[in-house]
Amino acid sequence: MGTSTDAEAEVGAGPGILAEVEAEVEAEVEAEVEVEAEVDLRHHGDAEVRGGGGLVDLAVNVRAGTPPAWLKQCVAESLDGLAAYPDGRAARAAVAARHGVPPERVLLTAGAAEAFVLLARALRVRRPVVVHPQFTEPEAALRDAGHRVRRVLLRAEDGFRLDPGAVPADADLVVVGNPTNPTSVLHPAADLVGLARPGRILVVDEAFMDAVPGEREALAGRDDVPGLVVLRSLTKTWGLAGLRIGYVLAAPEIVAELARAQPLWPVSSPALAAAEACVGPRALAEAGHVAHRVAAERGHLVAGLGEVPGVTVAGPAEGPFVLVRVEGAQGVRERLRERGFAVRRGDTFPGLGPEWIRVAVRDRPTTDAFLTALRASLPPAP
User: Fold this and answer.
1) What is the pLDDT of residue 62?
2) In this structure, is residue 160 part of a structural domain?
């Protein structure tokens, strides 16, 4: 798969115009390289807790503790079949039934991260756009595949809300998260659908949608939106980050194209067993209860942060994490670490500066202890 420049799209123009377009493209590429050098797209929350075994982890947006007992038992029982090669048909059918779509619209992946790599390598796109701030792996995967990525930066003063008019009309691939990591903003489904158009792939990362009560604004299962690709993760709510399991929902022809880019047996048998279990009726009921509990615990965290001088919460937050602005955030993070808490730095997300941190939602005792540590970690008032 090759990539193309904007200049190549103008082959019908005169030589002078073509040279001008080529010069503009070169300038854009130079600017993009400079921006990329300033942001570590491969820095993720797990980096904040490496080497800190005693830290309370508020940096990673994964269920605290271990998976529930019934899920661990399910994974353990799958180990008896490790001598056989993985067979994903049952898990694929279960995911399809969960969303009311035929299995041909489902692709199982080794987490959402693999899906981003497949999209970047398999789809023949020329003008990809990533809406930021958001999870940085989509842009990193696109760049690794040789694409020149344009960014649409949402603004704090607008509440990091999506402005569909800011997305370039010529974009043939648009990637946006919902709810978005790290802003925790839940975009209206109608705004996302408004981005779809013929000849464009619209990728909506719904990795945290099951943490939203009722999954309102979800697009998973929709088959009436042209070019829609929805990504889901089963690692967040169920504490399975080490197992790697997620899936893609898209038109059969897109699923087939992505599947051709996968190696044989890309998802392990234990991960397939977990996938089948996590989309069953029992798991869906439990996930619904968890979503309501997360919403209540998030409200407690946001209320507590609102009482801390010099701290501003981006909002309204709808995910299992909140984005917080605090002056001197780097020093605050270091002092929090000394007091036993790890939070996610924000300046590795395009569009955010060093004054931002992301905090995962946890239970009330953990939140109260964190708030106490945060107050003690703030720089003294001038």
Assistant:
1) 80
2) yes
Residue 48 CA to residue 98 CA, distance in Å, equals: 35
CA dist list (Å): 153 to 3, 77, 156, 315? 23, 46, 10, 17
Asked whether residue 353 falls in the same domain as residue 365, the answer is: yes
Q: 182 is in which domain, residue-wise?
A: 75-280
Q: Say how far apart CA 371 and CA 336 lie, in whole Å.
A: 10
On the question of pLDDT at 378 being above 80, the answer is yes
The reported pLDDT for the residue numbered 130 is 98
One domain, residues 103 and 54: no
139: Cβ contacts below 8 Å, ≥ 6 apart: 41, 130, 132, 149, 151, 175, 350
> Could you tell me how far CA 343 lies from the centroid of its own chain?
17
Cα 364 from Cα 122, distance rounded (Å): 44
Give yes or no for residue 9 having a pLDDT over 50.
no
In this structure, are 115 and 238 located in the same domain? yes
Q: For the chain, how long is the longest CA-to-CA vector?
A: 68
Q: How many structural domains does the chain have?
A: 2
Q: What is the model's pTM?
A: 0.87
